[in-house]
Amino acid sequence: MAQITTYFSSSGGGISGSGAAGEVAFFTDTDTIDSSSNLAWDDTNRRLSLNGPNTVGSTLVIAGDGYTDATSSIDVRTSLTYGDIPLFKVYDNGRIDSQVLSGTGTGARRNVAIGIDAGSSITTGEDNTFFGHSAGGSMANGSYNTFVGRGAGRSVTTASRNTIIGNDAGAAIVSIASGNVLVGDQAGVAITTGTSNNCLGRESLRSLTTGEGSIGIGYLSGAYRGASPSTTAVNPTASIYIGGGTRSGSASTNVSNEIVIGQGAVGAGGDTTTIGNSSCVSCFISGNVVPELGMTIPDGTNITFDDGTGTKIGTSSAEKFAFWNATPNVQPTSSIASITPVHGSGTSVKEDSKYNGYDLGQIVAALQRVGILA
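The chain above was modelled as a monomer; its predicted structure follows.
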């Protein structure tokens, strides 16, 4: 050990002690200096080591004593004026605790912010996570938000329970908006007060402002409306757009209950479902198709049947159907009541003439029942 020279003051007192080269001296008593290998300084490389080897190539080395979070290697706390609240702790096993408080040290708890100006305006908000330059930079008292990405949720002030991930995602949200999940560059970028929307994909639902409960999946999904890609905005509510470039078919900005599925598919407006874009030639659906409100065939379209085995309309004689708004009936049989024929000017038709077991009156009656004849 290197001996420390003893200095005496005019009053007769002095400081004494010993140490070793490379170790930082510290007082062990009012007049005694000592050193320890656990506190070392490498003057050549300008390195400080606390409880660890000074051979590690880092400016500051702090080593813990174990592999659990029972103790912390680093503990940064606020002034005791604010209640001695821990701000940043690094534990021996690598776990990190961090939180951002308000400017007064009260009213805000359990907030995590990483990045320049991230969460810089927090006052009373709690349990928020901000990661990225200006992420949640305007947040004052919202809670349970997660913002990840440069400018993510940067205008949010009081909104709560939003998950926003992506550059400028949810950048226009100010207040009230809650329960939104926005993932992707500029996803939901125009939302102001809309709630419970889910955007997945770059610029998905990018024009939505106040709409609620809508879903957009894919690049520019549900971003616009119209027959061709444009900047015409759409503000959907309770609508679903799945596929890159899916667009609303609404004639107005606000639309509700519109479902559009397929790359570049264009919807048909509110309360409609569109599956597939204009390039689709077939739509295959396994299982029975059960239209609850009926089925409409657009004008000028055809219904075709395979010419192999063929197609049946009805598979049981108990099934009822009809044509031209007639009352649906089960399959007619020869037991049907006949009708009285009206003879024309030619040879009279025999009323008892049969055609495969049916007389003429039964045939006419059956055709009328299913609506083929009025």
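Residues 2-63 form one domain.
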